[in-house]
Write a structure and sequence with these properties.
Elements (H helix, E strand, L loop, with lengths): L13 H8 L8 E2 L2 E2 L1 E2 L10 H13 L10 H21 L6 E4 L2 H16 L17 E5 L8 H10 L2 E5 L12 H4 L4 E7 L11 H11 L2 E5 L11 H4 L3 E5 L10 E5 L1 H6 L10 E4 L4 E3 L13 H17 L1 H20 L5 E2 L11 E5 L5 H10 L2 E2 L1 E3 L4 H6 L5 E5 L6 H19 L13
Parallel strand pairs: 3-15, 5-6, 5-7, 7-8, 8-9
Antiparallel strand pairs: 1-2, 4-10, 9-10, 11-12, 13-14, 14-17, 16-17
């Protein structure tokens, strides 16, 4: 990368952000005759040249099947593939054999859910006992979850007879921590929740949820899709049993994600997907499986994507995750305060003083979010519209959809201001009102 940022926790300077932007070719394009203002990184982030080059270089110099061939190219491809696993493991504070490659976070959550399901019908032997579910057992999640961290648990409950419990939210969209004891009971077998809400941008109190789960002997799964790209992440320090992430949200390509699982838990889990590459011995009637992580990596793997994701985490490490978090906190405050200062805008979620990333969702009564998004797109401003795969959360807050702006390390204050001007202009155009932004005074 071109930035030579010093190793510090200080926010990125304006000059450093501009240097970083030079590494992202797409940020220099125009949309509808305007410079692109990309505020949809919460859905899919952009990729720097180093990531694009890593995937292309693998395809042009190392492309081969991993863990299979005995020839030189296969050995070198395998080494690159496993080096990528090590890079991601270090990035999240895990051991290499605790990282399982998946297609995305959705597959990773389903992997865990189906391990519970398979254990519940007797697969996995005595070691899998703690994953077995039945009537009287409980699965716990929250009302703010992405559908990927809700529907797999709904289906698991339906398959096993367990009960799904959902921790409610208050009127501001914050978790009802006073409800933890009544919702995470001694019958809970797993508690699955998001680290950062993909709609509200708030950082959830992981310690409080983990402490309660530990008190009743439940396992913990953390959805880190919106935290791994934006915050320093240490799964051991957070004391979670499982964590999931998606590469395309953290400067990497699509089609690659990962599951972190404690070594002893992965060793006890029966597999989800089965087939080639995850076995030791096969007869026509039975099979024996490899140790983790290969036990959970059936079939041909996403090798070039894993190599590219490793390039992405090295890029993020070089910039410095504390610096990225500090930069986005500033942008997030500016974003939230600016939206709150526009007459006619309802910002979803709790107040500006809560820990958060640079993401905010809002509703404009009288204007559908799709119309808001289209109006902004006409100005070259890319945002997300709809329910963001979080219908229960939107329903709890009394809306069917919202508009979401989300930042990243390459976002600038000028882009936030262009977006705020666009929102004000949207209200003027559709409602004929006078929407004026006040001085938001969040950074000199």
């Amino acid at each position: 990368m071109s930035s030579t940022a010093a190793q510090t926790d200080a926010p990125l300077t304006d000059a450093e952000v501009l240097r970083i932007r030079e590494d992202f070719p797409i940020l220099h394009t125009e949309v509808n005759g305007h410079p692109l203002v990309y505020l949809d990184s919460g859905a899919t982030s952009q990729r720097p040249i180093a990531v694009l080059d890593a995937e292309r270089d693998f395809a042009t110099t190392l492309n081969s099947a991993v863990h299979r061939g005995a020839h030189t190219l296969a050995a070198e491809a395998t080494e690159a593939f496993e080096d990528a696993r090590g890079a991601l493991a270090r990035f999240v504070g895990a051991e290499e054999d605790e990282i399982v490659w998946t297609s995305n976070a959705t597959e990773a959550i389903n992997l865990v859910a189906y391990a519970f399901s398979n254990a519940s019908v007797g697969r996995g032997g005595a070691e899998a006992e703690r994953f077995r579910l039945g009537a009287g057992d409980e699965i716990v999640t929250t009302e703010m979850e992405h559908h990927a961290n809700l529907i797999p648990w709904q289906e698991l409950a339906a398959r096993t007879g367990a009960t799904l419990r959902v921790i409610p939210l208050d009127d501001d969209g914050a978790l009802r921590l006073d409800e933890l004891e009544s919702h995470i009971t001694e019958r809970a077998k797993i508690v699955a929740f998001t680290h950062v809400s993909n709609v509200l941008g708030v950082i959830n109190p992981v310690a409080a949820l983990v402490d309660r789960a530990r008190a009743v002997g439940a396992l913990v799964l953390l959805d880190a899709c919106q935290s791994a790209p934006h915050l320093p992440l240490d799964v051991k320090q957070l004391d979670v049993d499982f964590a999931v992430l998606s590469g395309h949200k953290m400067l990497g390509p699509t089609g690659i994600g990962a599951l972190y699982g404690r070594r002893e838990l992965l060793a006890a889990m029966p597999p989800f997907l089965t087939g080639g590459s995850m076995i030791t011995t096969v007869t026509t009637t039975e099979a024996e499986y490899l140790q983790p992580p290969q036990r959970f990596e059936a079939g041909t793997q996403r090798v070039s994507q894993a190599v590219a994701l490793a390039a992405a985490v090295r890029y993020l490490d070089e910039v410095g995750m504390p610096r990225i978090a500090a930069h986005e906190e500033i942008l997030g405050r500016r974003l939230l305060a600016g939206l709150a200062a526009i007459d006619g805008v309802r910002v979803l979620g709790a107040g500006i003083d809560l820990p958060r990333v640079g993401l905010a969702s809002f509703d404009i009564p009288g204007i559908h979010s799709h119309d808001v998004g289209q109006f902004l797109d006409d100005r070259g401003i890319a945002v997300r519209v709809g329910h963001h795969c979080a219908q229960p959360l939107h329903r709890r807050l009394g809306v069917t959809s919202s508009t979401r702006a989300s930042t990243y390390l390459y976002s600038t204050e000028a882009e936030i201001d262009a977006f705020l001007d666009g929102v004000a202009a949207t209200i003027d155009f559709f409602l004929g009102g006078v929407a004026a932004t006040r001085d938001i005074g969040v950074r000199s």
